[in-house]
Amino acid sequence: MLLKFKLGIILLLSICISVQAQDGKKVRLFIIGNSFSQNASAFLPQLAKEGGMDLELGRAELGGCSLEKHWKLAEANEKAYKGKSLREMLADGKWDIVTIQQYSLLSGDPGTYEPYATNLVKMIRSLQPEAKIFIHQIWAYRSDARSFGRINGEVRAKNAEEMHEHVRAAYHKAAADLGLTIIPSGDAFRAMETSKKWRYQKDPAFDTANAQAGQLPKQTNSLHIGYTWTNGKLAFDPNHANKAGCYLGSLVWYQTLLGGNVKKVHFRPDVVPAPMAKKFRQVVAGL
Questions:
Q1: Would you say residue 12 lies in a domain?
Q2: Helix-helix angle 185-193:274-285, to 10 degrees
Q3: Which of 84, 134, 245, 285 is the most buried (most CB within 10 A)?
Q4: Residue range 189-221, pLDDT digits in tens
Q5: Kind and range of the H or E run holding 281
Q6: Using 50, 70 and 90 to split pLDDT, how confident is the model at 6?
Q7: Across the strands, what pairs with 100?
Q8: Residue ranges of the alpha helices (H) in 143-242?
Q9: Cα→Cα distances 278→199, 217, 220, 252, 261, Å
Q10: Is residue 82 in a domain?
Q11: How far is CA 131 from CA 55, 99, 100, 216, in A?
Q12: What are the tens digits of pLDDT across the range 220-230?
């Protein structure tokens, strides 16, 4: 009995030492993406800090940038990323994790990924042979978007559900072909948007053509920016994530890339209600 007790104490101590060894762990994450990767990693530094990690981010992100454009810039050694080339940035020290993603408009069309994804992955592996490479599965546009992403050449998805299905399939194919791990942000968004309690529903009473200055529709539970007033004009962005969507995406990145326990996360942006944040954690933990 005494031996079992001592063994239990030794095991407990070893677990504690293992956990303590993670405190302050240095993680270098390099992101090759665009505005969607900026959205999804927006709150990752705060989450990493709470998890006791020392996170360093490298960013090669250009708005609307596709895999094709990233590769062509790299191939030409263009200094398109704040005065540096992609190769220069990737070769700057040892990166633990590297992420790639497709431009949202093209994400549902698998024909737009190659040979660019393969070429980028080969370059990453040549420069960072020990890095783990992830591919970021982006989310579909909001259900009331006026148009959705392409799924076959110029053919576009008919709705958010169809866009999600094609985007998901394209990313899973790329991941399987290239031996990458998926960051399932799009699945988390879809889980929220198909929930009877938490899904966004368009405000039928809002008249966009006759909206008065400052007047906005109800956008409860939206994960996308949606309607805003900018420079005295009504603007509509059903594509990019708002702060709630950024938080949801960051939880996915925290769990997938850093191994964080989202169930124990306390940090949340003030604009995200506590019940919604709790639902986010439940959804992400179940991915």
A1: no
A2: 130
A3: 245
A4: 999 999 999 999 999 999 999 999 999 999 999
A5: helix 274-285
A6: very low
A7: 135
A8: 160-178, 185-193
A9: 15, 25, 16, 14, 13
A10: yes
A11: 15, 10, 13, 45
A12: 999 999 999 99
pTM across the whole model: 0.91
In a domain, 219, yes or no: no
* DSSP structural state of residue 84: B
Owning domain of residue 94: 25-206+243-285
| pLDDT on residue 23 | 57
- Give Dmax (Cα) for the chain: 79
Check which CATH number belongs to the domain holding 106 and give it: 3.40.50.1110
**pLDDT above 70 as % of the chain:** 92
Average pLDDT over all residues of the chain: 93
DSSP secondary structure string, 123-153? HHHHH-TT-EEEEE--PPPPTT-SS--EEET
Measured CA to CA, the distance from residue 256 to residue 109 in angstroms comes to 24
Is 175 in contact with 161 (CB distance < 8 Å)?
no
Burial class (CB in 10 A: 0-12, 13-18, 19+), 274: exposed
Residue 150: φ, ψ to 5° = -75, 145
Cβ contacts of 110 within 8 Å, gap of 6 or more: 169, 170, 173, 174
178 CB-near residues (< 8 Å, 6+ apart): 117, 118, 121, 133, 135
Number of domains the chain contains: 1
What is the β-pairing status of strands 155-156 and 53-61? unpaired
Confidence of residue 25 (pLDDT cuts 50, 70, 90): confident
Counting beta carbons within 10 angstroms of the beta carbon of residue 3, is it exposed (0 to 12), middle (13 to 18) or buried (19 or more)? exposed
Region of residue 153 (phi > 0: left; psi between -120 and 50: alpha; otherwise: beta)? left
pLDDT number for residue 120? 98
